Amino acid sequence: MSQGGASGRGAANPQDRGWAWMVLLAAVVLQGMTLGFSSCLGVFFTDLQHEFQASNSETSWFVSIMGAVLHGGGPLCSILVKQFGCRFTVMLGGLLSGLGMVSSSFCQSISQLYITVGFITGLGSCFSFQAGVTALGYYFVRWQTLANAMASTGVSLGFTLWPLLSQYLLEEMGWRNTFLIVGGILLNCCVCGAIMRPIGSLPQAPKPGGEPGSRAEEAELLSGASPPHSVLQKHTKRTTCFQVLREYLAFDIFCQNKRYQVYTVGVTWMMMGFALPHVYLVPYAIHSGVDEHRAALLISVIGFINIFIRPITGLLSGHRVFTGRRIYLFSLAVLLCGLSNFICIISAEFSVLILYCVILSIAMSGIGALVFQVLMDVVEMDRFSSALGLFTVLESFTLLIGPPLTGLLVDITNDFHYVFYTSSFFLISAALFMGLSFCALDKKNKLREASKVPLDNPSGYQHSEMPTDPQADSQPPPVIMYVTSI
Fold first, then answer.
1. Among the ranges given (95-99, 354-358, 365-369, 385-389), the one the predictor scored with the smallest mean pLDDT
2. Architecture of domain 16-199
3. Residue 161 near residue 225 (C-beta atoms within 8 A)
4. Taking the chain, what is the end-to-end CA distance rounded to the nearest angstrom?
5. What residue ranges are annotated as transmembrane (predicted)?
6. Where are the alpha helices (DSSP H) in 239-291?
7. Which residues contact 240 (CB under 8 A, 6 or more apart)?
């Protein structure tokens, strides 16, 4: 076993060492340029609303479309990753993102922004971001929790820098030239993709329930290397609709794995209200009399605090005492995020809004650092890309309709307080649903394990059956037990 372990840590396996840290740096920059930029589009909200004489609901559509495509493009991203590898997918995403923003600088109507910023830039950001997350999952094993938390600090950096840069460029050059410059910046995703060089074949034993060689096949597909002829034959046979859905959308996992089912539904419901403060906080502050510079600074405050809190959250959640309990930390963070919205309802003074941003940032740090780690906890890494595809597709529907519907409510009532009422409702209810559901599943699992205790007591019957299964002690537990015990 020592020789196998040594070979697994050799030069052919760069996991948790060497170039893996360069990949982590690339993932940080990717998340800052993709998720970071998409989360601060509220800075452009007022300028675009005045430019095209659009309502709150109409203006919010380009933001919500971008968010929905960014998340909902997961299955297409999974296909590209499996066929061409993470390097190609990330670089393609960078090209699309840059093209979308450059094209948006020539738009003559708000509906054209739906296509350029919403669809093209959103799809490019999806490819770059999700392929980067997938590559990170394969480059890190031992330090996976820390790597995810460190990568998510890229979002914090984006939160901090994008609003300040965007507000400055808006004042100096206008929104059209700003979008043109942003397009050039997003092209740097191609550089990050170039860093994610082929990882090669991973000499690891397959997980329980997985197909032999599935890990090695995933690694070769990840790197973009040409798979062997037997692998090509296997993939050409998967032509039915059900098999495609199983491979890229993980409906089989959704139907069989209760934890994945609860987590996916809970996060999907949560996203209905999670994006609302990001879209409407700056317009709400400006509407309440706050200067535009200070209003943009609010988003930067959220990002700046995230830079320090997310790594701490990642380190704490990675401790073994939280193994199997990260979902409760995640639910607590969602609950705090929902409760923090009531601060905005109390007052729109700048000092009060700063307090709101501090508390919201702490809650968001927990959500950002744990959202993908919890997903990795409830599904096997061999199916993570597919599970992420379904996870993000379902999210995209609520991200798409949440901001426009809330914007319509604001247009009717002319009261921005409904943004925060709505956000709190969805966040709090999602947190309670996930926390209580996982608690019930854990209790059910403990009762199931307790019912098996008598079978472990020594008796003649048990001793007579033990030799019939000589590998029982050496084999890991079945897939369902492995998933539910984490």
1. 385-389
2. Up-down Bundle (1.20)
3. no
4. 25
5. 21-45, 61-81, 88-106, 112-139, 146-165, 177-196, 262-283, 295-316, 328-347, 353-375, 387-406, 418-441
6. 241-249, 251-256, 258-274, 276-287
7. none
Place of tokens 């001793």: 463
Q: CB–CB of 121/64 below 8 Å?
A: no
DSSP 84-132: H-HHHHHHHHHHHHHHHHHHHTT--SHHHHIIIIIIIIHHHHHHHHHHH
Q: How far apart are CA 201 and CA 13, in angstroms?
A: 8
241, with CB counted inside 10 A (0-12, 13-18, 19+), is: exposed
Instruction: Kindly state the tokens that stand for 387.
Output: 């599970």
Q: What distance in Å separates the CA atoms of residue 333 and residue 365, rounded to the nearest whole number?
A: 8
Q: Are 272 and 451 in contact (CB under 8 A)?
A: no
Cα separation, 460 vs 188, in Å, equals 68
| pLDDT value of residue 481 | 27
Residue 286 has pLDDT above 80, yes or no: yes
Full-model pTM: 0.69
Please state, in angstroms and rounded to a whole number, the distance separating the CA atoms of residues 28 and 31: 5
Q: Which CATH number fits domain 250-449: 1.20.1250.20, 3.40.710.10, 3.40.190.150, 3.90.1150.10?
A: 1.20.1250.20
The closest alpha carbon to 299, from 344, 368, 353, 345, belongs to 353
Helix (H) or strand (E) holding 225: none
Provide the pLDDT confidence category of residue 101 given band limits of 50, 70 and 90.
very high
CA angle, corner 306, sides to 304 and 307, nearest 5?
Answer: 70
The set of residues, in sequence order, having a beta carbon less than 8 Å from that of 446 and lying 6+ positions away, is none
Higher pLDDT, 75 or 101: 101
The H or E element that residue 182 is part of is helix 144-186
Q: Is the dihedral of CA 276, 25, 264, 127 positive or negative?
A: positive
The residue behind tokens 């519907």 is: 405
CA gap 5, 49 in Å, rounded: 60
Give the distance, in angstroms, between the CA of residue 312 and the centroid of all CA atoms in the same chain.
18
Model confidence pLDDT, tens digit, residues 315-348: 777 777 777 788 898 999 999 999 999 998 888 8
Measured CA to CA, the distance from residue 303 to residue 365 in angstroms comes to 9
Domain extent listing, the chain: 16-199, 250-449
**Maximum CA extent, the chain:** 85
Residue 323 DSSP code:
T
> If DSSP codes are grouped into helix, strand and coil, which group holds residue 55?
coil
